[in-house]
Automatic annotation (TrEMBL), chain A:
It comes from Winogradskyella flava. This is Fe-S cluster assembly ATPase SufC. The gene is sufC. NCBIfam families: sufC. It holds the Pfam family ABC_tran. One of its GO terms (molecular function) is ATP binding.
TrEMBL record, chain B:
GO terms for biological process: iron-sulfur cluster assembly. The lineage of its organism: Bacteria, Pseudomonadati, Bacteroidota, Flavobacteriia, Flavobacteriales. Belongs to the iron-sulfur cluster assembly SufBD family. Pfam families: SUFBD_core, SufBD_N. This is Fe-S cluster assembly protein SufD. InterPro entries: Fe-S_cluster_assembly_SufBD (IPR055346), SUF_FeS_clus_asmbl_SufBD_core (IPR000825), SUF_FeS_clus_asmbl_SufBD_sf (IPR037284), SUF_FeS_clus_asmbl_SufD (IPR011542), SufBD_N (IPR045595).
Length: 250, 437
């Protein structure tokens, strides 16, 4: 589904990703871990198409197609979803109408008619119930005045609405208390299928107790320096990241 | 001949054409003298520093349109808020169109200024209210000198006028260049409520200059809601002079939606002559190309316990220029005044500009006054966020701009106006998305 070959990316001439290789197949969950500043969030943003990042070398293939030239919305139309580490506050646009616009613009791009209003409402009801989101919350301005946990839950709600093929969760666990973490993880697990894939970016192992990865990759200084099974996450939790750095530098 | 000379020398002919025995004959004569002295404003004047009328005044305008050109309602229906039942006072090239109008004398007077000026039964109102609050500057004086036609609205006390009143001016291109000077008088007596919609619409690309004066009197506990829809062609320019005198506990709200026109200047003054009253002015300006919109507002707090609220949003594209000049005067006796002013702007293009200048003159010591001006660009991180959800760049941009101006629409009480403005905004931003936000 997603294949990244020798990806180098920079922001304002500062190299951040220095040769990433990653192969994500349908039905898989990949965790990307690593210390602060290792390039985890950059990798997420580059896959989603943030324009301030410059791809210097290598390629990102989605279903075999190079997506380097595609804008963020075109990538979204192809099924890429990024759950933001810091969701942006947009005063004046309600959650519901934001979702309506996003879904209908995506349908338009696929040559489909707008989703009928009753279908949309039913979907909103189902997905918000799944994530235990209060209906009142949906008429509020997008992320404005939301707590950290509400923002993250709202990201997963958007993911549930948009039903992406490839979901990238960037530090979705940060700012969540244990109950919210469980609700969010349950939501993600319910959305998982043999046709879609999830990349979980996290600093801690905590979320991986709930969303169990098939593969764990450790990112250090812009490169994946170690890959393994879910057991690797536990090892990192117990031993920290220093032994990895030592191994790399040895 | 310069436009000023042309106007001054036409005055005699004008006075002969209209009724020389009119009760306002002396007012007109004095006004033309004023105009002769003052002339058109120039950029040397502080209030006109950022707006030059030169490009507008250069045309050879006809000041007395020869005859009325008939228009069919079906051809101009789209310029009306036609979804609801309204009174209509319609002018074509400055002349009253009885065909398109729907006036009334049933308990209220919604009719013509020319009728009010000529019939004895209106004499008292004219004597008490006409030209009582319009200032003596060049443009207002010019309008006063040539005041003959416009809307006359008198709502006696305790009337809730449920049908809004539309004042619409069409120019047909019958003249190579046309100057019109509508004069409106709105008197709302105790406890009465009226809603008025005003629009100026040119039907061709021939240059049009409108210099309009509207005097509004909101008496005790009256409520006046005034909506100005400015979406004219870019060959038309508008100088709108609106003056509002409020008595105690009245509420006056003016919404100005400026999307069109070559040059638009809104002089909007509120005079608070009573306690516990509320003045509100809100505006959305979205312009591009070389359009220019200048909001010049004044709130004069004279008595205690009054409020004023100003909220103007501006979005400027291409080489468009904007001006916001908001003056709030709080007199010594106007204690417990609560005056709020905000002007927020987004510049989309490097060539667009806005000059924004709040002026507060406060002579009372127990007041709450706040003002804030911002000028910014669209938030790039918000753009990426919206686009990452599948909303294309143009639509994302439009959504953010609509959201930015959205709270001004919150106080519009007529849903059909709200949806009309929303549609104009969407088309102005070049998108086809419903902003039912």
């Amino acid at each position: 589904m997603l294949k990244i070959n020798n990806l180098h990316a920079s922001v304002e001439d500062k190299a951040i990703l220095k040769g990433i290789n990653l192969d994500v197949k349908p039905g898989e969950v990949h965790a990307i871990m690593g210390p602060n500043g290792s390039g985890k969030s950059t990798l997420a943003s580059v896959i989603a198409g943030k324009e301030e990042y410059e791809v210097e070398e290598g390629e990102i293939l989605l279903e075999g197609e190079n997506i380097d030239e595609l804008g963020p919305e075109e990538r979204a139309h192809k099924g890429v979803f990024l759950s933001f580490q810091y969701p942006v506050e947009i005063p004046g646009v309600s959650v519901t109408n934001f979702m309506k616009t996003a879904i209908n613009e995506t349908r338009k791009a696929k040559g489909l008619e707008d989703m009928p209003a009753n279908e949309m409402l039913k979907m909103i009801r189902e997905k918000s119930e799944m994530l235990e989101i209060d209906r009142k919350f949906l008429s509020r301005s997008l992320n404005e005045g939301f707590s950290g946990g509400e923002k993250k839950r709202n990201e997963i709600f958007q993911m549930a609405m948009l039903e992406p093929r490839l979901a990238i969760l960037d530090e979705t666990d940060s700012g969540l208390d244990i109950d919210a973490l469980r609700i969010v993880a349950n939501g993600v697990n319910k959305l998982k299928s043999k046709d879609n894939a999830v990349i979980v970016i996290t600093h801690y192992q905590r979320l991986l107790d709930y969303i169990v990865p098939d593969y764990v990759h450790v990112l250090h200084d812009g490169k994946i320096v170690k890959s393994g099974s879910a057991a690797l996450a536990h090892e990192l939790e117990a031993k920290g990241y220093d032994w990895i750095k030592e191994e790399v530098n040895a | 001949m310069e436009l000023k000379e042309k106007l001054v020398s036409s005055f005699m002919a004008f006075e002969n054409m209209v009724d020389i025995d009119s009760p306002i004959h002396d007012i007109r004569t004095e006004a033309i003298k004023n105009f002769e002295t003052e002339g058109f404003p120039s950029k040397r004047q502080e209030a006109w520093k950022y707006t030059s009328l030169n490009s507008v005044l250069k045309h050879d305008y006809s000041v007395f349109p020869k005859h009325e050109k008939a228009l069919e309602y079906s051809d101009v229906k789209r310029y009306f808020i036609h979804e609801i039942d309204t009174y209509k006072i319609v002018f074509i090239d400055g002349k009253y169109s009885s065909h398109l109008s729907q006036t009334t004398h049933d308990g209220i007077d919604v009719c013509l200024m020319s009728a009010a000026l000529s019939k004895p039964k209106y004499r008292l109102i004219i004597e008490n209210y006409f030209n009582k609050i319009a200032p003596k500057d060049g443009l207002s004086s010019l309008n006063t000198a040539f005041s003959a036609e416009g809307a006359y609205i008198h709502i006696p006390k305790n009337k809730l006028v449920t049908k809004p009143i539309q004042i619409v001016h069409f120019s047909t291109g019958n003249e190579a260049a046309l100057m019109v000077q509508p004069r409106n008088l709105v008197v709302v007596d105790e406890n009465s409520h009226v809603q008025i919609i005003e629009r100026h619409q040119s039907l061709t690309d021939n240059p049009v200059l409108t210099n309009s004066v509207t005097e509004i009197f909101a008496n005790k506990r009256a409520i006046v809601d005034y909506y100005k829809i400015q979406n004219d062609r870019e060959s038309a320019s508008l100088i709108d002079n609106t003056f509002i005198n409020q008595k105690q506990e009245s509420i006056a709200k003016v919404h100005t939606f400026s999307f069109g026109g070559k040059l638009t200047r809104n002089n909007l003054n509120f005079y608070q002559n009573g306690e516990r009253l509320d003045s509100t002015m809100k505006g959305i300006t979205i312009i591009g190309n070389k359009q220019h919109v200048d909001h010049n507002t004044l709130v004069h707090h004279i008595e205690p316990n009054c409020e004023s609220h100003q909220d103007y949003k501006g979005i400027f594209n291409d080489s468009a220029t904007g001006v916001f000049n908001g003056k709030v005067i709080v007199e010594k006796d106007a204690q417990k005044t609560n005056a709020f002013q905000a002007n927020n702007n987004i510049l989309i293009s490097d060539k667009a500009s806005i000059n924004t200048k709040p002026q507060l003159e406060i002579f009372a010591d127990d007041v709450k006054c706040s003002h804030g001006c911002t000028i910014g660009q669209l938030d790039e991180s918000a753009m990426f966020y919206l686009r990452s959800r599948g909303i294309p760049e143009k639509e994302a941009r439009a959504l953010l701009m609509f959201a930015f101006s959205n709270n001004v629409l919150g106080s519009v009480k007529i849903p059909e106006i709200k949806s009309r403005i929303t549609k104009i905004i969407a088309s102005k931003l070049g998108v086809n998305i419903g902003f039912d936000l």
